[in-house]
Design goal:
Layout (H helix, E strand, L loop, with lengths): L2 H8 L8 E3 L2 E3 L6 E5 L6 E6 L3 H19 L3 H17 L1 H12 L3 H22 L7 E2 L7 E8 L2 E5 L5 H14 L3 E5 L5 H13 L7 E3 L4 H8 L6 E5 L2 H13 L4 E4 L5 E4 L5 H13 L11 E5 L3 H13 L2 E2 L7 E3 L5 H16 L4 E4 L17 E4 L6 H4 L6 E7 L2 H8 L7 E5 L3 H10 L4 E4 L18 E2 L4 H6 L2 E8 L1
Parallel strand pairs: 7-8, 7-10, 8-9, 10-11, 12-13, 12-19, 13-18, 14-15, 17-18, 19-20
Antiparallel strand pairs: 1-2, 3-4, 5-6, 6-22, 11-21, 16-17
Helix pairs in contact: 2-8, 3-5, 3-7, 4-5, 4-7, 5-6, 10-11
The protein binds nicotinamide-adenine-dinucleotide.
Nicotinamide-adenine-dinucleotide binds next to helix 8 and helix 9.
Length: 491
């Protein structure tokens, strides 16, 4: 079978998409329709009706009417529903992974399947919080009132997410919001509507009452209508800093609090005392996984001069053996970029970096041919000797491009690492634990991964500083983002 035939056949599982409000399909396409293009084939595979402000109004109204019932549902019941949802995510894992592959090009072998298990883990974890939120009793004097606090939901949460890992984004936001007793209006990116639709269907199957979680399928204008809506009480957003600025401006008009998970330009500092047998494959693989479309990936590889050539050669050799190709094939490491605009943007960044001599291309830099030529594929690309001040080193690429930069001293490495406006994740490879602890302090980011470790643990907060955003997902902080604390004084 050709790639085109394989995808056409696989696309038979894609559900017919529509917005879902109060448990019902929301008919109509007041914001037009959108041809969903399979990123691996470049061919349209579905026509998506886009909802506009009428649907946002209806979804907010449905979420408001469901709010009292849901906040008064016992925590143990909320836990049960979310536990069931986690179970259903696992049970429908293959379908969810395939849908993700078809809608955004995530590879089955190195992305989509992993996102399913992560999503189940996050959902199960936050199920556990639903009946464990508590307040405190203030130790007042016996003549003073009794003072205690109650964790309360905000009310209706607006959740707006991007397309790069939709199932994981849903699981990072929706279970904690629901566990805390909020109801939700969700808007996924128009490029990944299928995953959200299936997530809602599974939530309903798990027992979530109608109206508690509402889905609005639409583009940027629909997102803007959610962020400006006076019926929304909190906004949680994953996407780019430019959009976050707009969302914050409209949220400001209603004084609505926001949580922002934005981009990143993670630095990965490899010191000459690092265990290179681990550091090289980690640095190569993790920078380019999900075809580089990850906010928290170590996309700037900073290498100490003494081991620089060895690491450049080693990392290049690892990436060279990775397959770029059909994301449905389990052995494929890198799939296509999400859409034509991403292809043009990433190709443009590579061309500009070359024209400006921002670095030396040691691998890739072009587009694969053959049956991949119709899809949005870019070769895994490595630039060495990158100028740390260049646009290539300073700005997020969100594509399969790794920049390698040499350094001499620890101080210099910290200065380079901290020189971008982002601050989501940084990484250190060293066998000197004193150095590791120093750098865990000195590097400016929400997370530091030391020695071949990723960037996320469901039990720990994840989020950024600088233009990478604020607010945290994961752990207790992740659920507390959706809790408003009420203080009670009894005389
Ligand atoms: P984007 O900001 O363009 O879009 C994200 C979402 O916002 C989409 O649903 C979009 O329709 C909506 N939107 C667009 N304009 C809007 C507006 N004016 N008001 C309200 N909603 C609006 O993001 P993108 O470029 O598609 O996504 C890539 C970015 O997301 C990258 O910067 C990446 O690093 C970031 N990201 C961050 C994380 C994280 O957890 N920190 C995770 C994944 C992706």
């Amino acid at each position: 079978m050709t790639l085109m035939e394989r995808h056409k056949k696989a696309a038979e599982i894609l559900p017919a998409v529509s917005s879902l409000v109060g448990g019902e399909q929301y008919a109509g396409a007041s914001a037009g329709t959108f041809d969903h293009i399979n990123p691996a084939t470049g061919q349209a595979q579905a026509s998506i009706p886009l909802s506009g402000t009428d649907c946002v109004d209806a979804a907010v109204a449905a979420a408001r009417s469901a709010a009292a019932g849901w906040r008064n549902t016992p925590g143990s019941r909320r836990r049960e529903i979310l536990e069931k949802l986690a179970e259903l995510i696992v049970r429908n894992g293959e379908e969810l992974a395939t849908i993700s592959t078809l809608e955004n090009g995530a590879t089955m072998g190195f992305g989509a399947t992993r996102f399913v298990s992560m999503a189940a883990e996050w959902t199960r974890y936050y199920a556990g919080w639903a009946d464990k939120l508590d307040g405190l009793v203030v130790d007042t004097h016996r003549d003073e009132p009794l003072v205690y606090t109650i964790p309360e939901p905000f009310g209706v949460v607006g959740i707006i997410i991007t397309w790069n890992a939709p199932l994981l984004s849903l699981a990072m936001k929706i279970p904690p919001a629901l566990a805390a007793g909020n109801t939700v209006v969700l808007k996924p990116a128009e490029f990944t509507p299928f995953t959200s639709l299936r997530f809602l269907e599974l939530a309903r199957e798990a027992g979530l009452p109608d109206g508690v979680l509402n889905l609005v399928i639409g583009g940027p204008e629909t997102g803007a209508a959610i962020s400006a809506h006076p019926g929304i009480n909190k906004i949680s957003f994953t996407g780019g800093p430019a959009t976050a600025t707009k969302i914050m401006q409209s949220a400001a008009s209603n004084l609505v609090p926001v949580l922002f998970e934005l981009g990143g330009k993670g630095a990965n500092l490899v010191f000459d005392d690092a265990n290179l047998a681990e550091a090289i494959p980690f640095s190569a693989t993790f920078a380019l996984v999900n075809t580089g479309q990850g906010c928290a990936l170590p996309t700037r590889l900073l290498v100490q001069r003494g081991i620089y050539d060895t690491v450049v050669e080693g990392v290049t050799a690892v990436v060279r053996q990775y397959i770029t190709g059909d994301p449905l094939e389990p052995t494929t490491f890198a799939g296509p970029l999400v859409n034509q605009a991403a292809l043009e943007r990433v190709s443009g960044i590579i061309d500009k970096a070359r024209a400006e001599n921002a670095g030396r291309v040691v691998l890739g830099g072009g587009r694969p041919g053959g049956e991949l030529a119709n899809g949005f594929f870019v070769e895994s690309t490595i630039f060495a000797d990158v100028d740390p001040d260049s646009s290539l080193a300073q700005n997020e690429v969100f594509g399969p491009v790794l920049s390698i930069i040499p350094f001499d001293t620890e101080e210099q490495a910290v200065e380079i690492a901290n020189s971008t406006a982002y601050g989501l994740t940084n990484y250190v490879q060293t066998s000197d634990m004193r150095r590791a602890r120093r750098l865990a302090r000195d590097l400016r980011s929400g997370t530091i991964g030391i020695n071949g470790i990723g960037n996320m643990h469901v039990g720990a907060p994840f989020g950024g500083v600088g233009i990478s955003g604020f607010g945290r997902e994961g752990g207790r902080e992740g659920v507390m983002e959706f809790v408003s604390t009420k203080t009670v004084l009894i005389g």
